[in-house]
Amino acid sequence: MDVLALSDAKVGSVGVVDRVDLPDEVSDYLAHLGFLPGTSIEILRRAPAGDPRVYRIDGVEVGLRNETARHIFLRLNSDAANEAK
C-alpha cells in the first residue's frame, strides 16, 4: 500500500492511518478523535474553497484543515491507491 499525506488523498478514498507527525498536544487531541495508527478513514468531502475537508473516522465525521491533515499519513486501500496515481 502507498503511504501519502491525508491532505493529498482524493475525496472518496478510503485508507488506514499510518502515523501522525505532529506535536504531542495536537497528536493527543487527534487521538481522542480517533486518528490512531491502524484506524480506517474515509475522505468524505471538501469545502467549496477546498479547505477544510471532512473525514469519517470511527463512524464520526471530523473536519480538518489541510495544514493539519498534511501531517497525518495513511495507507490507501489498493483500489483507491491506483485511482490516486
Largest sheet: 6 strands, antiparallel
Structural domain count: 1
| Estimated helix fraction | 10-25%
Query: Residue ranges: pLDDT <50 for 5 or more in a row?
Result: none
Class in CATH? Mainly Beta
Number of strands: 6
Q: Strands of the largest sheet, in order across it? A: 1-6-2-3-4-5
Shape: globular
Q: H/E element string?
A: EEHEEEHEH
Distance between the termini: 12 Å
Name of the CATH homologous superfamily = Ferrous iron transport protein A (FeoA)
The pLDDT mean sits at 89
Named CATH architecture = Roll
* Chain oligomer state: single chain
Number of helices: 3
Query: CATH fold name, please?
Result: SH3 type barrels
Describe the structure.
By secondary structure, the chain is an alpha+beta fold. The chain has one domain (3-84): SH3 type barrels (Roll), CATH 2.30.30.90. Helices cover 25% and strands 38% of the residues. It contains 3 helices and 6 strands. It has helices at residues 24-33, 66-69, 78-84; strands spanning 3-5, 14-20, 40-46, 53-57, 60-64, 72-76. It has a 6-stranded antiparallel beta sheet with strand order 1-6-2-3-4-5. The mean pLDDT is 89.
